[in-house]
Structure formats: structure tokens, C-alpha cells
Amino acid sequence: MHNLQFLSPVRVSIEHQIKEVDNVDEALEFLHRWPPERRGPVYNCAVNGCHAAIEARLSAEDAHKAFESFARITGILAEDAPPPAAVGGQQQAKPLTK
User: Fold this and answer.
1) C-alpha distance across the termini of the chain, in Å
2) What pTM value is reported for the model?
3) Confidence band (pLDDT; 50, 70, 90) for 79?
4) Cα 67 to the center of its chain, rounded Å
């Protein structure tokens, strides 16, 4: 683990749950679980940005921007939702509005 920390987390909404992605390693872990049939140029840009940050060719914040752009373009960015709150051991998510 490299733990290249983001200055602020990227909040994504998946299956009605909010997940905060705090660093480059978490972003890569998330991206590697992304369904292969949904991968494309934006996905590749985010993965490449994270790998470049690990290799010190980009900053962690540049990787943050690439991952956040991926989340925004794929419709999973939870920028309008309140911070996740543990309720009964589960995180509650506000539905995404467009």
C-alpha cells in the first residue's frame, strides 16, 4: 500500500450506499472492481492517473481529479449527499438527483 492521501475524499454512491475513497490505493481498489463491460476511456484515464501517482509521475491530487472525473461521468459521484452516517451498522445514502 502506498497511501497517497487525497486532500478530500471522493464520495461515490453505489447500490444506495455512500463510500468515501480517501487515497490512491482505495481508488485503484475501487476501479479494479468496476465491471469490465463498463470500462472505457474515462476508466482508463482514472486507472492510469492512479498508477502515475504511485510511480511519482503525478501528484495524489491529480489522481484525485482523475478518479473524481470518472465518478462524475459515470454518475456515481455523491457530491450532494450528506456525509455517511453509520445507522445500525449500515451507511445510508441520499438518492442521486439529476
Assistant:
1) 36
2) 0.79
3) confident
4) 5
